[in-house]
Write a structure and sequence with these properties.
Shape: globular
Number of strands: 13
Strand order of the largest sheet: 2-9-10-13-12-11
CATH class of the largest domain: Mainly Beta
Distance between the termini: 24 Å
Order of helices and strands: HEEEEEEEHEEEEEEH
Strand content: over 45%
Radius of gyration: 20 Å
Length: about 230
């Protein structure tokens, strides 16, 4: 199967183990309310209770990286697309787990500038609605594992289908180095695994910082020496 996914490969592929990353989504995740302790979100993607996820809160040039554990998740309602497909919508509560003093100060400032006016202005422990939730973005990660890799792309396994010919913002973690890349999905095939379905996707690297390219080349060189 991997040969079909990378018929037009530019570089030699190498089998790898233990390399993980995240596909980052932001367009289908809405903020319901937020506080210094956590956030309530609405998403079309199923998320796991008791699992920790990294989140990015963005607003007017401010980017705040925070980790949080999903403490509850329920099926809220469903939406019907123009094609007639029914899509479930989930609501979930996330408790921030690493709001240190610096991050807490930045988050409090963010809340003070953007929450809807309330008679209670004490922000700690108080959940607030955002004045314009459309301007608040949280990147929600979907984890993937890498099966094969080259200088020009990779073969990954994920729990969620990726749309072919679509570009995704992705994180790739190698030896504690985080690569921020843009990958284009070449193919995506569903494979049954026990009572679940996994997806095998071929991804072509289309944008990567020069520093990351050098680090990736160094890593690939070590694989070729094995």
């Amino acid at each position: 199967m991997s040969d079909r996914l990378f018929e037009k490969r530019k570089h030699k592929r190498h089998a790898v183990n233990g390399i993980l990353g995240n596909v980052l989504y932001s367009s289908d995740l809405n903020v319901i309310n937020i506080s210094i302790d956590g956030v309530a979100i609405e998403t079309k993607k199923r998320i796991e209770v008791n699992r920790e996820y990294p989140f990015k809160i963005k607003y007017k040039g401010l980017t705040l990286n925070i980790k949080g554990v999903v403490v509850w998740s329920v099926l809220s309602h469903s939406q019907k697309t123009e094609s007639g497909e029914v899509i479930p919508v989930y609501r979930a509560g996330v408790k921030f787990t690493d709001v240190m003093s610096e991050k807490a100060s930045a988050l409090i400032k963010f809340l003070e500038e953007n929450v809807i006016a309330s008679s209670d202005r004490r922000l700690r422990g108080v959940r607030c609605k955002i004045t314009n939730s459309d301007e608040v973005k949280i990147d929600y990660p979907h984890r993937y594992s890498v099966r094969e890799m080259s200088l020009s792309g990779m073969l990954i396994e994920t729990e969620y289908p990726l749309a072919p010919d679509t570009r995704y913002t992705m994180e790739l973690v190698i030896d504690e180095n985080v690569f921020n890349i843009v990958g284009k999905v070449v193919s995506c095939i569903g494979v049954k695994a026990e009572n679940d379905v996994r997806y095998i996707a071929g991804v072509e690297f289309v944008d990567m910082p020069e520093e990351s390219k050098e680090l990736l080349k160094t890593f690939i060189d070590t694989l070729e020496e094995l």
